[in-house]
């Protein structure tokens, strides 16, 4: 009989392996960000940790909902644009039917459905077996500069960093039904450039975190484990294509196993 | 002999009481934000908690430093404007010598010292005596919507919420030494309006947190303590003038005590 943590971990790993474009999870995107896969596999290779959610960092343009509160996410709030891939940010605003040169909404902000441009950095949630492991993972994340990390209930560690942009760029013109934009195309282009810098910094920090966790996992295996003698099945950085192929194989294998169960 | 937590707490309380415009602390502003004082006193009235740092929420305009990294805070980075008071945001941009209508910097963002407009919400750090207290405070903060809260090392709880704005508005023109602004005055006015809404939401959440902690503190005193029978010296919401007067009295008293020691 497995202990409760290991049972829970097995269940999560099954879900991760089965996840794919034909088997979406509950997140808005429905699949795990590819940039997160190496660190997810690394963390899950440790017997006392399991990843429960992740976002590798993203650019999004969000139309607020109709609810009477700030940055309303419910009630018809919707993503106008979202990507986790730096390359896909190129000229994104040319694909949106913005009405440039719009005036600013005259009513109070609460009455208007604003449009926000956001850059959000990597966030990882990791469930740990015990207090010691959660404390170690927390300290490790902090030492890599993930200064907004914290431990929650039941040894769940949130790994967070404050690389961000949060910029009002327009609003929904209720008369025309169009996206009114009160900043120019040149400003949107500049925001996109800044976001590319932030993506770069974000991935640099992700790599730093990966390396630190790799060292931690190696140390947990037994004293003195180094990159020379680490287990061969430990995940390393891989190309997008390699990741895709591996994930597909793993998913098929897992689904086969689930079917057999 | 006091236990280590109580010793540490007494030391922090002395520093808080002695803090004032003629006795600055290590923070950029040098004094504790007045909006935080009621909740600081409330938290510190609990024997197992002590506040270690706080910001009640603020609007700031920041010129990045010269270091070769994102949003550099060192190397000549400086605040162009900062306030914790909603009323003081009024027409703030008229006090800054902006050059409007500037072009965007052509070089990579790393080479340019950007100017960022920020709204940051309440943040509180609370050191707790033990794991149980930190877990309870964490859960309480999460239930009030402070969803980015977390427990750090040594039972330190960070209480955080994601109400924010983070907007690039200009850069330092190295040729003229002036603050080049690539958004218009009307946009800055709109940002300021949005910030006032965020301040309102921020103080609403602060009040909600205060009420929840008050209930928790009352519960810790003994079962069944209600607002009718709570101790008379428990702090409640007070006006700016009342707060100022009380703090002055407490500070004088504390300094008198320190002198006698």
TrEMBL record, chains A, B:
Describe the location of the tRNA wybutosine-synthesizing protein domain by residue ranges. 7-214
Q: Does the keyword Metal-binding apply?
A: no
Q: Where is this region: Disordered?
A: 221-261
* Pfam families in the record: TYW3 (PF02676)
Basic and acidic residues compositional bias, start-end: 229-261
- Domain of life, per UniProt, equals Eukaryota
The cross-references to SUPFAM superfamilies, in alphabetical order and at most eight, read: SSo0622-like
Q: What class of enzyme is it?
A: transferase
Give the EC number(s) listed in the UniProt record.
Answer: 2.1.1.282
Keywords from the named record: Methyltransferase, S-adenosyl-L-methionine, Transferase, tRNA processing
The reaction(s) annotated as catalysed by this protein in its Swiss-Prot or TrEMBL entry are: 4-demethyl-7-[(3S)-3-amino-3-carboxypropyl]wyosine(37) in tRNA(Phe) + S-adenosyl-L-methionine = 7-[(3S)-3-amino-3-carboxypropyl]wyosine(37) in tRNA(Phe) + S-adenosyl-L-homocysteine + H(+)
Q: Would you identify the family this protein belongs to, as annotated?
A: Belongs to the TYW3 family.
Q: What is this protein called?
A: tRNA(Phe) 7-[(3-amino-3-carboxypropyl)-4-demethylwyosine(37)-N(4)]-methyltransferase
Q: Which organism is it from?
A: Lodderomyces beijingensis
């Amino acid at each position: 009989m497995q202990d409760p943590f290991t049972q829970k971990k097995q269940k999560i790993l099954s879900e991760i392996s089965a996840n794919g474009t034909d088997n979406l999870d509950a997140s808005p995107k429905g699949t795990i960000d590819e940039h997160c896969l190496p660190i997810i596999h690394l963390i899950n290779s440790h017997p006392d940790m399991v990843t429960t959610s992740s976002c590798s960092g993203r650019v999004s343009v969000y139309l607020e909902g109709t609810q009477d509160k700030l940055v309303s996410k419910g009630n018809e709030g919707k993503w106008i644009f979202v990507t986790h891939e730096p390359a896909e940010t190129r000229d994104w605003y040319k694909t949106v039917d913005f009405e440039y040169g719009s005036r600013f909404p005259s009513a109070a902000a609460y009455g208007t459905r604003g449009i926000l441009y956001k850059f959000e950095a990597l966030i990882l949630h990791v469930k740990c077996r015990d207090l010691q492991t959660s404390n170690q993972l927390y300290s490790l994340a902090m030492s890599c500069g993930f200064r907004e990390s914290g431990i929650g209930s039941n040894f769940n560690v949130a790994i967070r960093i404050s690389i961000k942009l949060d910029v009002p760029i327009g609003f929904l013109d209720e008369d025309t039904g169009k996206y009114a934009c009160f900043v120019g195309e040149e400003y949107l282009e500049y925001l996109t450039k800044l976001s590319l810098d932030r993506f770069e910094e974000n991935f640099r920090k992700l790599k730093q975190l990966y390396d630190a966790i790799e060292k931690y996992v190696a140390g947990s295996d037994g004293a003195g484990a180094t990159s020379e003698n680490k287990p061969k099945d430990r995940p390393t950085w891989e190309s997008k294509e390699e990741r895709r192929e591996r994930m597909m194989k793993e998913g098929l294998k897992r689904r086969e196993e689930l079917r057999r169960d």
